[in-house]
Structure formats: C-alpha cells, structure tokens
Amino acid sequence: MKFVATIRNALLPVALIAALAGVAWSAWALYGRLHDRAVVRDLLANQDVSPPPTAKADVLFARGYYLLIRDRIDEAQGYARPIADRGDRLLLARFHYDVGNARLRRAIAQVEASKIDAAIPEVRLAKAAYRSALLADPELWDARYNLDVAMRLVRDFPELERGDEEAQGQPKKLWTDLPGLPRGLP
Predict the structure, then answer these.
(1) What's the CATH number where 105 sits?
(2) Any domain includes 181
(3) How far apart are CA 1 and CA 145, in angstroms?
(4) Rounded to an integer, what distance in angstroms lies between the CA atom of residue 98 and that of residue 133?
(5) Within a domain: residue 113?
(6) 123 vs 41, 67, 96, 116, 148, CA distance in Å?
(7) N or C: which end of the chain has fewer CB within 10 A?
(8) What are phi and psi of 163, to 5 degrees?
(9) Backbone phi, then psi, for 122, in 5-degree steps?
(10) This prediction's pTM
(11) Structurally, how many domains does the chain consist of?
(12) How many degrees, rounded to 5, is the angle at CA 158 between CA 116 and CA 140?
C-alpha cells in the first residue's frame, strides 16, 4: 500500500507537468492560427501585408492571390516555391492556375491594344503555368480548358537549331506566332 502511495505521489507532478506542456503547446498553436487568420483578414481588407516566412500554405496562397489580382504577377510567382515546400499540391495547382489566368488576361489585354509581340511571351508563360497546375493536379479541368485556349492563341512549334551564319542570312520574320483570338463561330 505504501508503494502505491509513493508511485502516486511521484506521478502526480509528472502528470501535472505533462498537462501544462500540452496546454502551452495548444496555446502556441492557437496563437499561430489566429495570427494567420489576421494576415488573411488584412489581405481581404486590401491591406498590403506580408506573411511571416513560417506561414502555412493557405496564407501564402492568399498573399499570392492578393498580388495576382493587382497585376503584380512576377512578385506573386515568387510564392510558388514556398507553397510547394509546404506540401499542399492541390493548393499549389490552384495557385499555378491563378497565375496562368492572370498572365492570359494580361496577354488578351495586350492583343486588344494591338501589342501582339508583347502578348506572345505572356501566353507562353500562361501555358507553362497551366502545365504546372496540371502536374500538381491532373484532374483540374479548368486548367486543361484554359491551356487549350492558350495553345490556340500561340502555337507551340519546335525550334530548329541553326547556326549564327544561317540566322543572319534569313529574312526578317513577317508573320507573327499569334494567329488571332478564338471568337466563336465565323
């Protein structure tokens, strides 16, 4: 009986310390979630806040989306690697899809402004973003559809390797790679 009482007296402080450690860990996790929610709330309120480097993937996605809708695509694309490092491939696919949409919107605006040469690289970057989205999530049908539209805008032709001497002798390219926007029925 005395042995049981001794063990109970020894285990009581250990159990109390373990319970306090669990409460402290839970409080720290709650603080992190509240901070992440505050960052997302500020982004939704149109405040330009940067998430901490240890932020979760959804907070980084929110920051990237904030930049994309403000046409700061190059800055937003820097968040692709941190989102990928967090391991959420579906969120990464959505992010690449949104980057592709932003680039395609910019390209279409340039085509409408008759800046064909500036639109071609944007369409190619949009296609690369859609392909990255499909690599992360092959079931993302919206990315497949938009990739098809982008591929109709600018065709992918294999580039032939030519020497510098041949390239200088070729006449200037008079035909653009952009055949036109698909506008439905003729």
Answers:
(1) 1.25.40.10
(2) no
(3) 75
(4) 9
(5) yes
(6) 32, 19, 14, 11, 11
(7) C
(8) -75, 165
(9) -65, -40
(10) 0.71
(11) 1
(12) 75
Give pLDDT tens digits for 71-129: 999 999 999 999 999 888 999 999 999 999 999 999 999 989 988 888 899 999 999 99
The pair of three-digit structure tokens given for residue 122, joined into one six-digit string: 């944007």
For residue 171, pLDDT over 70 is answered with no
Q: Is the CB of residue 103 less than 8 Å from the CB of residue 73?
A: yes
Using the Cα atoms of residue 41, residue 44, residue 45 and residue 47 in order, give the sign of their dihedral.
positive
- Write the DSSP assignment of 62-100 as a string of letters: HHHHHHHTTT-HHHHGGGHHHHHHTT-HHHHHHHHHHHH
Please name the amino acid found at residue 179. Answer: P
For 156-167, give the DSSP string. --PPPP--HHHH
Instruction: Provide the residue range defining the domain that includes 92.
Output: 54-155
Question: Which tops the pLDDT comparison, 9 or 120?
Answer: 120
The structure tokens 């979630």 sit at 33
176: in domain: no
Instruction: Judge residue 108's burial from the number of C-beta atoms within 10 Å of its C-beta, 0-12 exposed, 13-18 middle, 19 or more buried.
Output: middle
With both helix axes pointing from N to C terminus, report the angle between 116-136 and 89-112 in degrees, rounded to the nearest 10: 170
- The b-or-e profile of 82-91 (16+ CB within 10 A means b, else e) is bbbebebeeb
Q: Establish if 147 belongs to a structural domain.
A: yes
Count of H-run helices and E-run strands, the chain: 8, 0
